[in-house]
Design goal:
Blueprint: E1 2-6, H1 7-10, E2 19-23, H2 49-57, E3 61-65, H3 76-86, E4 90-94, E5 103-104, E6 107-108, E7 122-125, H4 136-142, E8 146-149, H5 156-164, E9 168-170, H6 175-182
Parallel strand pairs: 3-4, 3-7, 7-8, 8-9
Antiparallel strand pairs: 1-2, 5-6
């Protein structure tokens, strides 16, 4: 990528108004104005099968934000995490409701992602699209490697904020379906 830079904009002594071309790949990033740097956060928006396969292979611990309780076993927010646990993932329940519940799927419940004492590879989100942004600060504070918004859940502004924080993001896909299809 070539970029035209003004010598005067850089404040060089004796600079003229002439511009010159530089190859931005050969110049230290701090010397390139942020407006000329290539956009790199979009690499964290995952859409391809191979990217998903790699993410699943690198994942062992999944926090499930919005998980349901056993009484709602027919709901995706319960049976998807149950499936994930059955195939070997460590599931950490983070329900939004059910304040009296202390364990789901035999695991201790946490009320906020930041309260989880171990590193989380992936946060699997079961919240309405319009409710996802309310959890953004908590997700950013926990800094998981990836966030997976389940089927029907999409928030492009949240996805962009997470991607800019170097967190991989998958939107509007079912983790269980992709795991079954793409394997581990």
């Amino acid at each position: 990528m070539k970029a035209a830079l003004s010598l005067q904009a850089w404040g060089f002594f004796g600079a003229t108004r002439d511009t010159f071309l530089i190859d931005v790949h050969r110049v230290h990033p701090r010397l390139i104005p942020h407006t000329l740097r290539p956009v790199t956060w979009s690499k964290n928006i995952i859409t391809g099968a191979e990217q998903i396969r790699e993410l699943l292979a690198a994942t062992t611990t999944i926090a499930v934000l919005g998980i349901k309780i056993e009484a709602q076993a027919s709901q995706p927010a319960f049976y998807v995490p149950r499936y994930l646990k059955s195939v070997g993932f460590q599931i950490i329940p983070v329900p939004v409701y059910y304040p009296q519940v202390t364990h789901i799927l035999g695991q201790k419940v946490y009320r906020k992602l930041i309260e989880i004492p171990i590193e989380v590879d992936l946060v699997n989100v079961f919240r309405r699209s319009q409710d996802v942004s309310a959890h953004l600060d908590d997700i950013l504070a926990k800094k998981p490697k990836a966030v997976w918004l389940q089927s029907g859940i999409r928030d492009d502004s949240v996805a962009e904020a997470l991607a800019k924080a170097d967190i991989k993001v998958i939107q509007d896909r079912c983790l269980m379906v992709d795991h079954r299809y793409l394997g581990r």
